[in-house]
Amino acid sequence: MKEKKALYMNGYLGVVVLLLLLAFAVVSFAEENVILAIILVAVGAVLATGITIVQPNQSKVIIFFGDYLGSIRDSGLFMTIPFSTRRTVSLRVRNFNSKRLKVNDVEGNPIEIAAVIVFKVVDAAKAVFDVDQYEEFVEIQSETAIRHVATKYPYDTFTTEEITLRGNADEVSKEMARELQERLSVAGVEVIETRLTHLAYSTEIASAMLQRQQASAILSARKKIVEGAVSMAQMAVEQLDRDHVLELDEERKVNMVNNLMVAIISDRGTQPVINTGSLY
């Protein structure tokens, strides 16, 4: 099904025609030409069934005894095919706020996720004929897409540079929009934007996962500190040897490096006593 333009004319002109028919019917009745008056009134009544009003950013889908005749997208008063059925479809931009869905991320952790979907109808014929109740179709497909995307990524990670739900919300939203557009194209709906509105671990594991995050963060920070401490201790030994400030044997170098590592890596305000060996 593809949208097409319906046959219609200016509604104000149609109203003028109806008034003229009514006036001729009154004159004919006054001249005792009852049959002509009845015919004129019947024609006017038939034409009056084709009068319709289209609001801005709306579309009227014209159906004539089960046959799709086209759509009216222009706003105003129009006269179209008499005895036709007209279904109104809004073309305005709308929001759909999903419920908080409980799903498992790619690592199997239960999380709560919700999103807002910004969409509009671009093909009224598809919205009416290709799906049943397109608003409900948008809601169900949106929640399905949210669930599917949430299962493709971890909630968070400190060990790799992969995409996560918490750290890459923009990328996840774009992926969700692409997948949702594929699902809603059949209904003539265009997805304008998707955004995550809620993301959290489920209540039953929130405390444990918070401790895991803290431990992972501490481990990652410690790793950086150790790498920096090793580099600083190495530079200190190399500079002492290069400038001939001190001449240390291997044992004293080991002791000095050990003391430097302890002083740098310690997370408390210690005052270490560093043994650098004797001066020759």
Automatic annotation (TrEMBL):
Which residue ranges does UniProt annotate as crossing the membrane?
Answer: 7-28, 34-54
InterPro entries listed in its UniProt record:
Band_7, Band_7/SPFH_dom_sf
Alphabetized Pfam families for the sequence? Band_7
- Positions in coiled-coil regions: none
Q: SUPFAM superfamilies from the entry?
A: Band 7/SPFH domain
Which domain of life, per UniProt? Bacteria
Question: Do the record's keywords include S-adenosyl-L-methionine?
Answer: no
Q: Where is the Band domain?
A: 49-213
Do the record's keywords include Membrane?
Answer: yes
Q: Which UniProt keywords apply?
A: Membrane, Transmembrane, Transmembrane helix
Protein name in the entry? SPFH domain / Band 7 family protein
Q: Which organism is it from?
A: Priestia endophytica DSM 13796
> What is this organism's lineage?
Bacteria, Bacillati, Bacillota, Bacilli, Bacillales
